[in-house]
Specification:
It contains eleven helices and 18 strands. It is α+β, with helices and mostly antiparallel strands. The longest helix has 73 residues.
């Protein structure tokens, strides 16, 4: 369970780390896309400003008449567009769409009256920014800025500067470095794509895309994550309206390129997880080996304990049998009956102790109630006395060292009671109480309702000496009261600590 908990904790930590890493990678990608959109917007703003200025200079260069007069006019037009970025071409066309001047050495006689950058001007527009176009001269993707030319208050033609998309945006795309699958572009506010790099497949109407339907209607700049409807690529798109123009600058960061660091972290996490898994499996196998070895050792210890218990039980059983053999030998001796019985009773008490030990497998302590009841029942049965014995004994564990002295004390007290307390034939009643009074001490009280005695006249025989010796052995004190029956009270150290 500990290994499983450690593994789950590691998974949670790695999961939190990867989640944080992914969020950081996306945030960094968004920040880079935003920074790139600002660069694109700056370039678009500069391009728009320079194109308008160039068109104005071309208009001023032409003078009152648009009719070609000298090569100086063409030279002036070249000078007017010299500051524009990329491969710029300038054209001047008359009101019929016929080219009058051009900086394009490969210019051909083509009609442009259907191009919006000319037709809108003919209808009265002052300026125009085209959407993405395919050049009719060389098939390249271009976009154009145009200016209405008026002479004597009427439409006289148009001045046009056109740009190749790749020449304008390639350097910007490389500079922002948003990944191999990234794009930079700008669109008109009506959703028409003006320029995109890498090059788009062709003109594109984006007015139905989420940029126009969900985002621009709420804020003029921001970011969003989307799957491109053009090529299906996953990108982070940053957009920004270019101030003073009808253009929106876009920088689309390659999502997979932007989270490369996250994938490196995933690789590290997988490596850590694999290493941790191998380590935990090895630890699990080692723990399993230790548990098996521990189980084997535990089984050996249990077998040894069981064998020792069997040996101890056998020892106590043999001691009991030996004591009983001693009883039998005493009975065969030519001793006075009183002495034989006294010895037999005392030996019987010791037999009871060993019997309790091997019957209950209690080799270090004995239950005081069971021990006392065993001794008392043997004596009452041996004397055949019609007495009633009441017990009031606490749950006290008696150490085996103290069990034999306690049994001898109970035996000696009961023997005296059965021999001398009920000589007048009265119905005998004996009460035995053992109460715990301290950490190791207990109070033993043995009372009968017999004839009583005067302690001053009590003979100091073998029994009295045995009682005093046992009480001293148990670090105790004792008293006798013979005024109303006989009451013996002793405080003894018998409780198992």
């Amino acid at each position: 369970m500990i290994i499983i908990a450690m593994f789950v904790s590691l998974l949670l930590m790695l999961g939190l780390w990867l989640n944080t890493s992914y969020r950081d990678a996306v945030r960094r990608n968004e920040e880079r896309a935003i920074a790139a959109s600002k660069i694109v917007a700056s370039n678009v703003s500069l391009l728009d400003s320079l194109a308008r200025q160039a068109l104005q200079r071309i208009d001023e260069t032409l003078g009152e008449s648009l009719t070609p007069q000298a090569s100086a006019t063409v030279r002036n037009i070249n000078e007017a567009v010299a500051d524009l970025p990329g491969q710029v071409k300038a054209y001047v066309v008359d009101e019929k769409g016929t080219t009058l001047y051009s900086t394009d050495p490969m210019v051909k006689p083509i009609n442009i009256v259907d191009r919006p950058y000319f037709s809108d001007l003919a209808k009265g527009a002052k300026q125009h920014i085209s959407s993405l176009l395919i050049s009719r001269l060389n098939g390249e993707q271009i976009f154009a800025f145009s200016r209405r030319l008026e002479r004597n208050g009427r439409f006289a033609g148009a001045a046009v500067v056109s740009f190749e998309v790749g020449a304008v945006l390639a350097d910007v795309w490389e500079a922002v470095n948003l990944g191999p699958n990234s794009t930079v572009s700008f669109v008109r506010s009506d959703g028409q794509l003006v320029a995109r790099y890498p090059l788009a497949d062709g003109p594109l109407d984006m007015s139905k895309y989420v940029l126009f339907t969900d985002y621009l209607i709420n804020t003029q700049d921001g970011t969003y994550e989307a799957i491109s409807p053009v090529d299906g690529a996953h990108r982070i798109v940053a957009y920004r309206t270019v101030d003073g123009t009808r253009l929106i600058a876009l920088a689309s960061a390659d999502h997979d390129f932007g989270i490369q660091r996250f994938w490196r972290d995933v690789t590290v996490a997988i490596s850590v997880l694999v290493l941790a898994s191998v380590s935990l499996l090895a630890a699990g196998q080692w723990i399993r080996h230790l548990r098996r070895r521990e189980a084997a050792q535990s089984q050996l210890l249990q077998n040894a304990i069981a064998e020792n218990q069997l040996l101890l039980r056998e020892i106590h059983h043999r001691v009991k049998n030996n004591l009983q053999a001693v009883q039998s030998i005493i009975q065969l001796q030519r001793l006075p009956a009183e002495i034989q019985r006294s010895l037999a009773d005392r030996i019987s008490s010791m037999v009871a102790v060993h019997e309790q030990i091997y019957r209950h497998d209690e080799f270090s302590r004995l239950c005081a109630r069971d021990l006392i009841a065993s001794v008392v029942e043997k004596l009452v049965s041996a004397y055949g006395a019609a007495v009633t014995v009441d017990y009031d004994i606490d749950e006290i564990a008696v150490s085996t060292d103290n069990a034999t002295p306690l049994a001898l004390l109970i035996s000696e007290l009961l023997t005296n009671i059965l021999k001398y307390a009920f000589t007048d034939g009265r119905e005998g009643r004996i009460s035995i109480a053992l109460k715990s009074i301290g950490e190791r001490r207990a109070r033993l009280t043995v009372r009968d309702n017999g004839v009583g005695f005067d302690p001053q006249t009590m003979q100091q025989g073998m029994g009295s000496r045995l009682i005093r010796g046992v009480v001293n052995q148990l670090n105790g004190t004792h008293t006798f009261d013979g005024s109303d029956g006989t009451t013996f009270t002793a405080e003894l150290d018998i409780v198992e600590s």
